[in-house]
Each structure stands twice: as structure tokens, then as C-alpha cells.
Amino acid sequence: MKDRMALAMITAAENDGRLKAGGAVVEYTGGSTGVSLALVCSVKKHPLHVVTSDAFSREKLDRMRLLGAELTLIPSDNRKQTEKLTKDMIREAHALAERTGAYITGQMENTDQLTAYTKLADEVHKQTGGQIDAFVQSVGSGASLRGVSERFHQLGNRIRVVTVEPEESAVLSGGPSGSHTIDGIGAGYVVPLWYDGIADDFQAVSTADARAMLYRLANEEGLFCGLSTGANVTAALRIAESLKTGSTVVTIACDSGLKYMSSFRQHMEPLF
Hints:
Blueprint: H1 2-15, E1 25-28, H2 32-44, E2 48-53, H3 58-66, E3 70-74, H4 83-100, E4 103-104, H5 114-128, E5 134-138, H6 143-154, E6 160-166, E7 201-205, H7 207-221, H8 227-242, E8 249-251, H9 261-268
Parallel strand pairs: 1-2, 1-4, 2-3, 5-6, 5-8, 6-7
């Protein structure tokens, strides 16, 4: 999913001259966007500097380094994701871009990435024959939920759009900002790409429930996914229970659980 948006952001900036051939790129990220940007920038020969944190999985940090990215790590509060951490990362990335003259992709505000999610929506529409009753997606920057749901509406799908948030920091639905450990979602504040009316409904999913679902997906379906996918599927099942038989609920399995093995390991002992 993130490969699409990383390519869209870089290609758009190259095409309109914001990013010159061989020009350096800066981004702040919890890791998945960073890994995809590192991949794209490696192929397109753009040096990449990523501002990230020890709050995020070691595997993602290592993959970014292996793909050639330079990393600046912002210390977290006991490896938890908070509003302060997100804003500290953004502040450092902008300062770095200002000092070096690099192009900052700035995923929290970048609308170039929406085209990637428009294409994703087109694929889902085709695969379902347009028969979609609900779209359920967690929010980090908000780009995937916004891009996909806006395209569904353009295609004439009258669907229920459901936003998934960490229960510990459900700010989009009016809750207090808090800390959680679901990589890539729940920035802790209302993100710039968000606007009132995107979602018809909200589902708050705790880190514990997301983790329980990822184990269930692995054991029952052979799908080894990350915590944000666990949150998505938990919420999607809740929504499915409220709909009539035969309804179609679409959600996204965002990435592989292999990106999170070091953080999962501490929770696996009681399972065996």
C-alpha cells in the first residue's frame, strides 16, 4: 500500500520540478512510508534522510538503512506513540530540509499521494463489481481513507465509511490524545488531510484487541499481519455484524507481521 503512495509523491515532485534529478528527500515516518520511500528513492537515485523514532519496529528501521536511507531517531516515551512524538518528528524533518535544501515529501499534508489511493479504489471497485456496503480503514495521515472513500463516492458507491482509531488516542472522534503502540496510525491530533464528513462512523480499537486479532488471523487464516491490520479487521467484523446478510465490507491488510517480529516477541511467550 505504501509503495504506491511513495512513488506518487516522488513522481509528482519530479514532474513539476520541486524535486530535481539526484535531489535529496526528507520525510518523517513511523517506518512503513519510510521503507517505501527508501525503495523508490534508491531506484530513482535520490538520497533520503528519514526522521523516525525508537518507538517503531527495529525491522522497519533496519530496512530503511539497508535501502540506503540515513536515519535520525527521535527518542520516545517508553516506545509509545504520542502527539508530542509525532510533532517532534515533523518539526525535526522540516528543520533538516530547511538546513540542507532537501525536498520534504511531508506525508501528513501531501495531496500528491491521493492519486495512489484513487487507483486502489478503482481496483477494489472492479473486484467487487461495485457492490460495497462499507469501507473500514485506520488513519495515520488520513490519505488512504480519504483517497479511497472519495473515489468510491465518485464512482457512485453509496457506502458507509468507517474510521478506525486506537482506543487509547481516539482524537478524530472527539476523544483525548493518548499513547499507544499500534505502528503507523493514531497521530494523537487531528491531521491536516482530515476534514469533517470523511467518515460516517468511528471505531476505536485497543492495542490489546488489535494484537489478539493479528494472532487470530495468523492461526485461523494463515495471514501474518501488523497491528494496524489487526485493528482494521477487528473494526470490520464489528461493522459486518451490524449489516444485513450478504453485505460486503472492505478493509485493508496494510503490511506483513514480519516487519514487527522484535516487538511481537515479548507477547508471544504466553501463547505457547
